[in-house]
Amino acid sequence: MAAPNTILPGFSASLWMQTSSTPTALSTANLSVWTAQVATIVGTVANGTGAAGIALNVEAVPAYGQDDAVASFGVAGSRQSDKIPTQAAPTSLTITAPWNPSDAALLLIRGDAYSGTVERTYAIASVSGSTTIAYAFNARASEFKIDAQPGAEAKCVFTLHPRGNQYGWSNT
Amino acid sequence: MTLDEAVAMLTSAQADLDLIARGLPVDAAEVADMMTIADEDSAEMVALKCLAKYNPTPQATINNANDTDPEQQ
Predict the structure, then answer these.
(1) I need a labelling partner for A100 at 20 to 30 A (CA). Which of A137, B11, B26, B43 fits?
(2) Domain spans of chain B?
(3) In chain B, which residues have their Cβ closer than 8 Å to the Cβ of A30?
(4) Which residue of A30, A165, A166 is in closest CB contact with B43?
(5) Is residue B36 classed exposed, middle or buried when 0-12, 13-18 and 19+ CB atoms within 10 A define those classes?
(6) Measured distance CA(B15)–CA(A159) in Å, rounded
(7) What is the pLDDT of residues B20-70, one digit of tens each?
(8) Each residue of A146-155: pLDDT tens digit?
(9) A37 near B CB under 8 A
(10) In chain A, which ranges are E strands?
(11) Contact A138, A25 (CB under 8 A)
């Protein structure tokens, strides 16, 4: 149960999602459990089993985690003001992927975006050799659009909005 | 509420576990005992850690109190 003990390059991260058009998202507690839970979503190339998940082939995994949120206070006579962290939203992930109209993962995302209510578990797996650390979260998809400019390959762009408090870290 | 019921509620929830655990009074000693046998990589352990945060064992409470007691320093 050891997490990677090295500075990870950006390209070591990959994005995985539950299969099925009507998925049952993991419970919040299970988002922090690698064995038989998150591992089933992450594929074998990232040290998972991949039994219930597929890779989302994205150009780059965007920044993920928590947005900033602070309240600022000023006190008369005090040299410095104060900033207190307040309730923060999870970071939304705007993702660009090469547009293949037959890609199973993109078809699921497209369906989720049109529905707006499908909740799915995603996992971002960062790998170093045989060790992996995963950030799993439940999210809904939106803003699915195709960018088919003639000067480059067609791309699709969509946004994943993670549900608040429904995330977990786990590792091999 | 029994510990088993509390753990079952937490492991199946799709919500903020801290928020739920705050409202689940359970036997602190029982939580501590269960934590010694639960699998570290399991949903049960995640739930027990949440419960332990809001139901500390008396010994942990005493230790924390001593840590902040100016008489001890």
Answers:
(1) A137
(2) 3-66
(3) 11, 43, 46
(4) A30
(5) exposed
(6) 21
(7) 999 999 999 999 999 999 999 999 999 999 999 999 887 665 566 666 655
(8) 999 999 999 9
(9) yes
(10) 13-18, 53-56, 70-73, 82-85, 93-98, 120-128, 131-147, 155-171
(11) yes
Q: How far apart are CA A46 and CA A48, in angstroms?
A: 6
**pTM for the predicted model, two decimal places:** 0.89
- For residue A58, report the phi and psi dihedrals to the nearest 5 degrees: -105, 160
The pair of three-digit structure tokens given for residue A10, joined into one six-digit string: 């950006």
What CATH fold (topology level) applies to the domain A11-62+90-171? Pnp Oxidase; Chain A (2.30.110)
- Return d(Cα B58, Cα A128) in angstroms, integer: 41
Q: Any idea which residue has 């949903």 for tokens?
A: B43
Residue A57: CB partners within 8 Å, gap ≥ 6?
Answer: A97, A98, A103, A105
3-class secondary structure, A66: strand
Considering only the beta carbons, identify the residue of B13, B16, B43 that sits closest to A33.
B43
